[in-house]
């Protein structure tokens, strides 16, 4: 009878035991092994060139060796020597030896060793390469720059020429005017539910770009350095006086819908999606000399906006749209110019992101990269060479 | 001839002539007074503007008019319908439609025209440009951001062009009778706009 009772009690607990089993299986599946995530490789224009399943191991992202064929060198070959735990890679006429777990990369052909922050590892029975290998080692063998966005798991491979140009123009300094919109007690701009104010965010981003730019050798002028009111005319006057090669007006967006989010990009085009009756008057002075006028810079503004758009698409999940309107903030600026809305303060996600200093820093880095790429594209363009 | 001369020199004739002159003078004075009294009536009446000339006529039956309000769920402007008894005159009709847009409230929609905004006046010039003169609340009530500003302007333009596809080509937004550069600091509205 006692045995029967025990049996009944076990039967009553049976569904509970099954549930415990299921939870254990799910836990082992998700936590016992490294999680797989897709990493996308994109080119300079933001087009996806390859995808690979990554593995997260000891907080580092690892990729299979084969992906090198798709993104770097189709003729790459490799051989894994199991007893020695050694991976021998042959690419771009070089032989590279990596030992699993070792933080040294041996370039046999050049007879030199290169340190690597994260070592390669055997994961799930196959040799895997850490993301650092792609960022730091591959550029040694070719003229490329590899950028990695851990938030979106995107890797961007840019030709070094597009990034650094041919250093002939090194003597010329590239001047950029950053316009943090609004300012002062009279003009706060829009406000977020979390207490964020537009004038403060745009100033923080502008100052971050300015501080980061010192390493790149750009000259960055701000139309306001602190929380002060500056009229449109004052901003235009100081901008034109500084004779920059690029003007970026920073703002934060707002909408009547709390769902709208993401970065928006605008250029001044009186014949854009909204058309002004005044239209575009491309002003040409006597003897064909171009008189300073924003309409004369429409093409250059579009060129830079496209570079910035690609750069921001690499940085953020939401697709960046470029719109053309008659924009008063850009109308009288005599240089290529864009207006960048950094996010919607009316949206909780965007407002939370913009309150994060790390996000501000990454955003500033993306904008700075776009400036660098634009500068290089100008220096490399045949028009500039003929000037 | 003698008879005529006798009549002219007779007292009766002189009296008759004097009476006639007095009657003419009295008649002239009466006419003058009547005409003056008519002028006084015109001055006391409210000024009749050309574009409101037809307002005294009977209004036609109500028709459905499209107004563009913002749907926060879809994040886009949507046409909603209102029944309006519209005057035949285009300027009056435009005023009625934009006033309806300014005042429209509807559940589940946001009116992108800031609260408190009034439509002061409207004009249509001979180049098919409509001038819409709003109170300063249209600019002061902007929530900030290019997107919100574009939504406000697009709502106005959509509503105008939907109602007057052939009669209006451009819309200029005025604030308290003045041309302005901007509503919230982003779009250039200093010139008439169209899509």
Give the strand order of the largest sheet of chain A, numbering strands 1, 2, ... along the chain: 9-10-3-2-1-12-11
Contiguous uncertain segments of 5+ residues of chain A: 27-33, 285-291
How much of the residues of chain A is beta strand, in percent? 25-35%
Q: Strands of the biggest beta sheet of chain B: in what spatial order?
A: 3-4-5-6
Number of domains of chain B: 2
Number of helices of chain A: 10
- In the CATH hierarchy, the third-tier topology of the largest domain in chain B is known as GMP Synthetase, Chain A, domain 3
Kindly provide the radius of gyration of chain B, computed on alpha-carbon positions and rounded to a whole number of angstroms: 30 Å
- What structural class do the secondary elements of chain B suggest? alpha+beta
End-to-end gap of chain A: 103 Å
What is the rounded distance between the termini of chain B? 92 Å
Helix tally of chain B? 5
Helix-strand pattern of chain B:
HHEEHEEHHEEE
CATH topology name of the largest domain in chain A, in short, is: Aminopeptidase
The count of DSSP E runs of length 2 or more, i.e. the number of strands of chain A, is 19
Q: How would you sum up this structure, described in words?
A:
The complex is a heterodimer of chains A (387) and B (195). Chain A has ten helices and 19 strands. With 387 residues, chain A is an alpha/beta fold. Chain A folds into two domains: 36-161, Copper amine oxidase-like, N-terminal domain (Copper Amine Oxidase, Chain A, domain 1, 2-Layer Sandwich); 165-386, 3-Layer(aba) Sandwich (Aminopeptidase). Chain A is globular, with a radius of gyration of 27 Å. Chain A has a seven-stranded mixed beta sheet. Chain A has a six-stranded mixed beta sheet with strand order 14-13-15-19-16-18. A five-stranded antiparallel beta sheet of chain A has the order 4-5-6-7-8, with no helix packed on it. The longest helix of chain A is centred in the N-terminal third of the chain and has 31 residues, at 2-32. Chain B has 195 residues and is an alpha+beta fold. Chain B folds into two domains: 2-44; 53-179, GMP Synthetase, Chain A, domain 3. Chain B contains five helices and seven strands; from the N terminus they run ααββαββααβββ. Chain B has a four-stranded mixed beta sheet. In chain B, helix 3 (90-103) runs antiparallel to helix 5 (146-163). Strand 17 (275-276) of chain A pairs antiparallel with strand 7 of chain B.
């Amino acid at each position: 009878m006692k045995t029967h009772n025990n049996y009944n009690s076990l039967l009553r607990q049976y569904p509970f035991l099954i549930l415990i089993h299921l939870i254990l299986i799910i836990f082992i599946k998700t936590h016992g092994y490294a999680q797989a995530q897709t990493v996308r490789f994109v080119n300079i224009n933001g087009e996806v060139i390859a995808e690979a399943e990554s593995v997260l191991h000891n907080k580092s992202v690892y990729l299979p060796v084969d992906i090198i064929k798709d993104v770097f060198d189709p003729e790459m070959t490799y051989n894994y020597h199991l007893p020695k735990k050694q991976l021998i890679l042959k690419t771009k006429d070089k032989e590279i030896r990596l030992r699993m777990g070792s933080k040294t990369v041996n370039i046999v052909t050049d007879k030199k060793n290169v340190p690597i922050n994260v070592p390669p590892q055997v994961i799930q029975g196959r040799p895997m390469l850490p993301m650092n290998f792609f960022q730091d080692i591959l550029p040694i063998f070719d003229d490329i720059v590899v950028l990695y966005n851990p938030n979106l798991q995107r890797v961007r491979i840019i030709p070094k020429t597009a990034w650094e140009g041919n250093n002939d123009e090194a003597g010329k300094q590239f001047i950029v005017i950053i316009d943090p919109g609004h300012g002062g007690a009279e003009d706060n701009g829009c406000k977020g539910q979390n207490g964020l104010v537009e004038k403060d965010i745009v100033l923080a981003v502008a100052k971050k770009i300015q501080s980061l730019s010192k390493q790149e050798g750009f000259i960055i002028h701000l139309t306001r350095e602190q929380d002060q009111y500056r009229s449109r005319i004052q901003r235009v006057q100081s901008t034109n006086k500084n004779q920059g090669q690029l003007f970026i007006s920073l703002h934060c967006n707002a909408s009547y819908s709390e769902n709208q989010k993401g970065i928006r990009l605008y250029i001044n085009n009186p014949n854009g999606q909204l058309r002004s009756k005044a239209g575009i008057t491309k002003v040409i002075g006597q003897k064909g000399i171009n008189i300073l006028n924003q309409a004369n810079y429409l093409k250059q503004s579009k060129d830079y906006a496209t570079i910035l758009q690609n750069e921001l698409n690499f940085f953020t999940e939401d697709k960046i749209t470029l719109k053309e309107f008659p924009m008063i903030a850009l109308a009288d600026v005599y240089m290529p110019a864009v207006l960048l809305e950094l996010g919607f303060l009316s949206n909780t996600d965007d407002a939370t992101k913009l309150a994060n200093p790390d996000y501000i820093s990454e955003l500033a880095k993306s904008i700075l990269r776009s400036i660098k790429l634009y500068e290089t594209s100008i220096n490399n363009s045949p028009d500039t060479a003929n000037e | 001839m003698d008879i005529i001369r006798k009549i002219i020199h007779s007292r009766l004739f002189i009296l008759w002539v004097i009476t006639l002159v007095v009657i003419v003078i009295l008649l002239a004075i009466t006419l003058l007074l009547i005409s003056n009294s008519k002028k006084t009536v015109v001055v006391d009446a409210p000024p009749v503007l050309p574009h409101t000339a037809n307002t005294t006529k009977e209004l036609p039956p109500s028709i459905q008019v499209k107004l563009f309000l913002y749907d926060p769920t879809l994040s886009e402007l949507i046409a909603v319908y209102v029944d309006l008894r519209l005057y035949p005159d285009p300027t009056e009709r435009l005023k009625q439609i934009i006033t309806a847009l300014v005042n429209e409230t509807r559940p589940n929609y946001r009116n992108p025209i800031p609260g408190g905004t009034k439509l002061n006046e409207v004009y249509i010039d001979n180049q098919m440009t409509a001038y819409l003169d709003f109170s300063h609340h249209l600019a002061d009530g902007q929530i900030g951001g290019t997107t919100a500003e574009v939504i406000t302007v697009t709502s106005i333009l959509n509503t105008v062009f939907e109602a007057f596809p052939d009669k209006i080509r451009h819309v200029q937004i005025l604030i308290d009778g003045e041309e302005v550069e901007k509503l919230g600091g982003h779009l250039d509205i200093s010139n008439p706009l169209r899509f």
